[in-house]
Automatic annotation (TrEMBL):
Location of the COMM domain: 139-184
Region named Disordered: 1-33
Top-level taxon in the UniProt lineage: Eukaryota
Protein name listed in UniProt: COMM domain-containing protein
InterPro entries documented for this protein: COMM (IPR017920), COMMD10 (IPR037361)
Lineage: Eukaryota, Choanoflagellata, Craspedida, Salpingoecidae, Monosiga
Length: 184
């Protein structure tokens, strides 16, 4: 029994081979819902990337724009059956490849949206936490310096010798205790 497009239920894709309808009949692979995107197996992802790489950039931009525009419409597909057929003809690929292309691009778009939202919500806190955590086991706490010029000594009367002393105070980050230093 084939369901019409209007009454066909939306399903979550469980594998790259398709899924079963609510009546237990095999159905072709459909676009996943945005609430629970599918994670393609590595070989499917590799095939999808090859298809994506074969699509001209201008056409790929149009497809991604359509996916972005229709992203908020959870119950509607980004592309109708007629538009999918037009893509199939324009890209000269089979229907499975069109579905794989659109599913993968939707998956990438959804994943990117999740990452962007997470970064927007928690990025500043992550940057602050990372910025305040030292990268090394010891850190520089204080510096002291002294510069002088010795113009003569008892053995040489016309010599100028510049001298500099630099003292660095280090702290052990694990214990926040200053490490012992020797005086200049």
């Amino acid at each position: 029994m084939q369901l019409s497009r209007q009454t066909r239920p939306r399903h979550i894709l469980s594998s790259s081979t398709g899924h079963r309808s609510q009546h237990g009949m095999a159905q072709p692979a459909m676009r996943t819902t945005r609430r629970c995107p599918f994670v393609p197996p590595p070989q499917t992802l590799t095939a999808a990337v090859q298809i994506i790489n074969a699509v001209p950039v201008k056409r790929l931009n149009s497809i991604l724009t359509r996916i972005a525009q229709r992203h908020h419409e959870v119950e509607e597909e980004a592309f109708s059956e007629d538009e999918r057929y037009s893509l199939q003809v324009a890209l000269d690929i089979d229907p499975k490849a069109v579905s794989l292309l659109l599913d993968t691009l939707s998956f990438f778009f959804d994943t990117t949206q999740i990452i962007l939202k997470t970064w927007a919500d928690h990025g500043a806190q992550l940057v602050d936490t990372t910025r305040n955590q030292p990268f090394f086991s010891t850190s520089l706490v204080d510096t002291r310096w002294q510069a002088s010029v010795q113009t003569a000594s008892h053995t040489q009367t016309r010599t100028t010798v510049p001298m500099g002393h630099l003292q660095l105070e280090l702290a052990d980050n694990a214990n926040q205790v200053p490490l012992p230093t020797s005086p200049p």
